[in-house]
Amino acid sequence: MTPPQRQRRLPKEQPPAPPPGSPPGSGKQKNPERLFVVAGPDGGERDGDLDLVTLIVARADPPPSATPEQSALLRLCSTPLSVAELSAYLNLPFSVMTVLLTDMLTAGLVTARNPIVRQTVADRSILEAVMHGLQRL
Known about the structure:
It is a single chain. By secondary structure, the protein is mainly alpha-helical. The chain has helices at 35-39, 68-76, 83-90, 94-107, 124-136, and strands spanning 55-58, 81-82, 110-113. 36% of the residues lie in helices and 7% in strands. The termini are far apart.
């Protein structure tokens, strides 16, 4: 009688190691759209007067030719929102947001206005009138 023959075990296939310097666990994430796809081919060449606190309000419904980002912007802007808020809600950088909003401003889909800045110091005559009114009580 011969002893049973042992089968040699081969090592299991290991996934390739991530390149050095990449964050751990980043191999299986879905690829986001490149920013030049969202902003268009000439995205970096536009100059707008938009600031982080500029308020954006939608003027029209999304046209059929609107990109998904433009449609989302128009839905969000039914009430005035700042560019910073829109950038945070859509998870897009400020530079891409300004390109999208500049395109939409030239197309007449949105309007932009500066926020209302209140006076830092109240008018002295109003303060005196309040003070005299309180003294009469």
